[in-house]
Amino acid sequence: MGKLAFLCPGQGSQVLGMGVDLVGRTPWAADFFEEAKAVSGLDIFDLCTNGPAEELDQVQNQLVCTVVASVAASRALAERGLQPDCVAGFGIGEYAAHVIAGTADLETVLTLAARMAALGAMAAHVAPGGSAYLKDITPEEAQALCERCDEGGGLFVSALCCPGTVMVAGREEPLAAALAEHEAAGKAVQRVNCTAPLNTPLMQSAASGMGMALKHTLFGPAQVPVYNNLDGAPFDHMRLPELLGGAVTAPVMWEKTHNALFDAGVDRVVQVGPGGMLLEMAQAVAAQRGLQLKTARAATVEDIACISI
Q1: Residue 205: per-residue pLDDT
Q2: 212 and 116 in a common domain
């Protein structure tokens, strides 16, 4: 049997109800959410339960809540004896991945995630806009589209997701122009429910703030490999602050991550936390390589109870 990877979702994955169904059905979940509240200053259980959705969607809230939901799902899977051989996270999902891999504890990661969320919210205020997936496009075509729609450095490729899918992010005006042009060509677009221009040079001020925080953070050795967003390779423990800090302004190399996972023998993946987009991307990369890949979601108690992988 091959290896099992856990994939942690990132920005725009948040949904009302994520993670909270564990409370009352697992003995540790209530204390877990209380710990998350104490560290982050957010009532994450209330936000994820009652919202409203507009409040949960705020950058300063969604990023932290998504990390918490992913870590909670991984703990519920561990109770069932399901442990990953390796982990990867998309964007802010990298922070959840480090808790799962044991390189940092929940308090450390939520402190960092809360700082990232606050800095991302500031960037969204300075450069209002967002991000979107473009379908049926190559990275080169996406780059050319960004350059055509904005000559002022306000729109960038923010993730190379899988064959045919690229994420772009930036200011609203050039982003809207790019989406309109892509749709006019008969190709699909999907807006991401996040207003921060994450993983672009527009996050440079945030990168400076995160760099200082990461420099003073003590990370431990990983119990399982964590594959990073910058080059798709496993994190080098000695370069953790550099790699996490560099990812703030650089595109997520998600297709490279999947290729590295498959090269390492991964043939099963579980998305831990809300959504299912990462599974679609994994299947697209596997299909291009002619690989058989088994996937599963672990977003709800029912998902976790029924999982067989």
Answers
A1: 87
A2: yes
User: What's 89's domain CATH number?
Assistant: 3.40.366.10
CATH of the domain at 161: 3.30.70.250
Query: Comparing 75-79, 161-165, 205-209, 289-293, which segment has the lowest mean pLDDT?
Result: 205-209
Taking the C-alpha atoms of residue 19 and residue 29, their distance in angstroms, rounded to an integer, is 9
pLDDT at 245 over 90: yes
pLDDT in tens, 269-293: 999 999 999 999 999 999 999 999 9
The share of the chain scoring above pLDDT 90, in percent, equals 90
Averaged pLDDT for residues 189-196:
95
**Cβ burial 91-111 (10 Å sphere, 16+ → b, else e):** bbbbbbbbbbbebbebebbbb
Given 192, 211, 242, the domain boundary residue is 192
Identify the domain containing residue 159 by its residue range.
129-192
Do 16 and 109 sit in the same domain of this protein? yes
**Quick one: 104 and 169 in the same domain?**
no
Give the pLDDT score at 302. Answer: 94
Whether 114 and 172 share a structural domain: no
pLDDT tens column, 9-29: 999 999 999 999 999 899 999
